[in-house]
Predict the structure of Fatty acyl-CoA reductase.
Amino acid sequence: MASLSSSQAVLDFLARCFSEKLLYSCEGIANIFVLIRDKKGVTSEQRLKQVIEKPVFSRIKTARPDALNKLIPIGGDINLPNLGLTSTDEEKLLEKVSVVIHMAATIKFHEKLNISVNSNVKGTEYVLNLCHRMKRLKAFIHVSTAYCNTDQHLLEEKVYPPRVKLDEVLRYIEQPDQDEEVIKKRFLKSLPNTYTFTKGLAENYVLDHHGNIPTVIVRPSIVSPSLREPLEGWTDNWFGATGMIVATVKGANRVIFGHPQNVLDLIPVDYVVNAIIVAASQCLETLAVYNCCTSSCNPLTLEMLLNCVKETAITIGFHDNSFPTVIFTNKKWMLLILTFLLQIIPAYVADLILWVVGKTPKYVKLQSQAIAVRSLINFFTSNSWEMKVDNVKTLYASLSHADQREFPCDPSDINWNKYNNNFVLGIKKYLMN
């Protein structure tokens, strides 16, 4: 079997972990073709070599280093028609690929609508068009997000009807002048950003155009450091809850927008990877949707998360002086006032002291970064959803005991105390050195 991973962000956290797990646990796979664009004078081959040097591949280097030869870079761009493939690469994919994993997207929350549509919707169209011409294709896996229907409190494993028709959106983005307020009122409505909006449009495109291709949509919530694989607590980015946790532990963030009993739906990256692999192996002649989430079966509240993080941070000395008191508020005006009093003013005072003693001020800059990180996750800490995972649990239950041990993906099994301990340890080890 040969697989195509259409993540031009092979440098993306999920894509790297997915490639490593395929190589480590699926020895029968022939090749993994990875779509990567050239960037800043660095070729796709060079970028792949850089990625392989990351710690995420240390396990496979030890166990079966030759398996890394199965990773084959394919130069291309998700934003270009036919993915910008050369005729040689196109023919290779059409002849050899049997499973396509499409996880490429722009994940900038507030990207301009035309850019987000081109990458997340048109990019999906280009991948699916290629899939329809593949001679050996057995499954198409589209990685979406659990947050593309946040106007629903109960989120089931199904494709929801679009809020607006794609044709209407395409006509609008062809206009030279696009008003952000019009976009919010006409298209986004109650959705938080263009990312979640366009991922929902992409799901509907897949529903309408997958044809007779066995198709799966996998919807992870907030993808977070690994629970077990490839390394406990492995992470390589500040996205999701990671930045907020570090800012809070270090005392830079003292206010959280939300209620302490709100559920923050984290999902370990290795559980998402395993769900994708298992879903691909059992893909049927219909479209199936799998939510990779924890809120409905194993909820983690903000209060639980911070208590676990606090305990671990104090134990390993990963905090500055005393662990700061965190205040929760559901009021935006109160969030601004508390942030000004507890974060911004102290930062200016600290920088003034540094300046007086002849040192370089730094705390105002750090504070602006902490506020920016928090603002990205404000929508998710100030709301709660119940995301059903019945299909994922059924999928997991269908596996043999051996495969359940090899590909754990039932979120009910996650021990949050152990996970959050690994979360903090992973941040300290892999991000803070």
Observations:
- The chain has a mean pLDDT of 89.
- The CA atoms of residues 404 and 413 lie 11 Å apart.
- The two ends are 38 Å apart (CA to CA).
- DSSP finds 16 helices and 13 strands in the chain.
